[in-house]
Design goal:
alpha/beta; Rossmann fold; eight-stranded mixed sheet; 9 helices; 8 strands
Length: about 300
Amino acid sequence: MTETFLDVPGARLCAETFGDPADPALLLIGGVAGAMDWWQDDFCRALAAGGGDGDADRHGRFVIRYDHRDTGRSRTDPPGAPSYTGDDLALDPVRVLDALGIDRAHLVGVSMGGGIAQQVAIEHPGRVASLTLISTSPLTRDADGPPLPGPAPEIQAQFASPPPDPDWGDPDAVARSLAEADRVYAGPGYDEAESLATARRVVARSIDPAAASNHFLVDGSPVRGTLADVAVPALVLHGEDDPLFPPEHGRAVAAEIRGARLVLLPGVGHQYPPRSAWGVVVPEILAITAPERTAP
């Protein structure tokens, strides 16, 4: 694992890489207000290794994860005063690839990161080798399609009455607040100990954890194209117990992209792939990113 800082327009982004740079690049794009730590170290290593000893695919991946602006060790603005737009968040994956000298990468995005990955695939198709979309909703959709269901009642209740902010001067209180937010969205297999450990890592390496809320204040431009324009292999991974985007959202994403493969994950909610699902998720991502599958 190697940490690096990348200077991009308007920001300095912190990134970490796993594996051999000579292997196919795989870029992980996190969710809203999410530092890169939510992509677990062991998950990144499993992808970089190319599978277990008994796997037919032993070709590694060069795995890249990064802190969005206002998260982790990337450039941070004062809470409530972001200096960037949603367009910057959407373009940062391309900027990360540029800064690392990578022409084309496999994109894996979760939630907001899935929306960003969709936009990059539509607007910058030459930079994308394949697309894996996790716990997300279609960025564009046929207007004649049926309406998609809204969030579960418990999520709607939290939207209507958000919990109070933690004491930002108390790292443990902030970590517990992040872990509780993870619990609300996660599925039945929520691992409290692992979630809290990850949240503590996030807080310990964040310049200002309160700044992550700036993501909710920025807007982006309409996407220039539709998912029907996506012409790379695509995988949609969606939790059967997602309370924010019920499974119909994952089905809709897969229906909009020609040839997309849909895999529903039992016991998984709206979350980064939990360890309990890695036995399915890791082989699926390795399959969609296999060199023979995506060779030009």
